[in-house]
Specification:
With 277 residues, the protein is of the alpha/beta class. It has helices at 6-11, 16-26, 36-39, 49-58, 77-86, 97-109, 148-158, 197-207, 218-235, 243-246, 250-262, and strands spanning 67-71, 89-94, 116-120, 133-139, 159-172, 210-216, 266-274. It has one domain (6-274): 3-Layer(aba) Sandwich (Rossmann fold). It is 40% helix and 19% strand. Strands 3-2-1-4-5-7-6 form a seven-stranded mixed sheet, with helices on both faces. Strand 1, helix 5 (77-86) and strand 2 form a beta-alpha-beta unit. Helix 9 (218-235) crosses helix 11. The structure holds S-adenosylmethionine.
Length: 277
């Protein structure tokens, strides 16, 4: 596995599976016997963690006969969550080879490989036929994508008419503000492509989507980070958590994420769209 792509190089570490196994062993769980609940603290790699995935799922109408797409699936926590909750099929695609490898291994270990499959590839060049999926979602991925119009048009292309597209992302709240880095998706601002909600909604609409709603998740995300800080102050650093994926500077990344939101520079949003029938 090589990481020629700089975004994949930012995220990927060959040792990730072993690091997760060591963290789980620290709480008495053998990774080869891990269930979805053992992984929940560490496999939802976005502000709000599994709660954000639950809320996203609450907003979607997914049924067991659906086949849905997770664009930028990371190590696969949200894809496994959707497959378990709805009994549907989920295909995940991600740019980072090491994440795809860990996602496949954890999916097999948790017994979900018959319903969740993972592809390595790019959101801007999806290796799937037209009108293939009943729905698609993408959580905290677009901030790494320079050509967001292409992300939107590829999602549109692979959806059947009537299919949903749910986009969770960090949007620019103040266009004049200087973002504080590092953040989870960028060490220093390189390969960080942020846009306003208005620009995203315009692009989605231009693509052909019907935009159904746009929700500002700032308050929920700030509360999530504050609760994490309080827990660390009370109990010490967690033994398992997304910090394992984020790497050594996770504290700074999480602190800056919270500060960028509380100080009005960025805001997490969730935009729900539908491909017209
Ligand atoms: C912050 S993580 C979120 C992972 C996952 N969506 C989650 O919420 O657990 C961002 C992910 O986007 C992926 N990514 C970034 N740019 C991408 C692209 N052009 N195509 C596919 N995946 C991409 C990264 O490899 C990484 O796994």
């Amino acid at each position: 596995m090589t990481n020629d792509n700089p975004v994949a190089a930012h995220y990927g570490r060959h040792s990730l599976f072993d690091e997760i196994a060591a963290a789980l062993a620290g709480v008495g769980v053998d990774i080869e016997q891990a269930g979805p609940k053992d992984l929940t603290p560490l496999d939802h790699f976005h502000g709000g963690g599994v709660t954000a995935t639950e809320e996203l799922a609450d907003a979607l109408s997914v049924t067991a006969d659906h086949h849905i797409l997770d664009i930028g699936c990371g190590i696969g926590g949200p894809a496994r969550y959707m497959a378990q909750r709805f009994g549907c099929r989920v295909t995940g695609i991600d740019l980072t080879p090491e994440f795809c490898d860990v996602a496949r291994r954890l999916t097999k270990i948790t017994g979900l490989a018959d319903r969740v499959d993972i592809h390595e590839g790019s959101a801007t060049d999806l290796p799937f036929p037209d009108a293939h999926f009943d729905g698609a979602y993408s959580q905290n991925v677009s901030m790494n994508i320079a050509d967001s119009a292409r992300l939107h048009s590829e999602a549109f292309r692979v959806l059947r008419p009537g299919g949903f597209f749910a986009l969770s992302e960090i949007a620019v709240a103040d266009p004049d503000a200087t973002i504080t880095y590092p953040v989870p998706w960028s060490a220093d601002g390189i390969h960080s492509y942020l846009e306003s909600v208005e620009d995203t909604v315009r692009s989605l609409t231009d693509t052909g989507f019907e935009v159904l709603s746009s929700k500002d998740n700032s308050a929920r995300t700030v509360k999530f980070y504050a609760a994490q800080r309080e827990k660390i102050a009370r109990d010490g650093p967690p033994k398992t958590g997304v910090h394992i994926i984020m790497g050594a500077d996770y504290r700074e990344k999480q602190r800056n994420s919270a500060l960028n939101i509380t100080e009005g520079r960025l805001k997490p949003v969730e935009i729900l769209c539908r491909k017209p029938v």
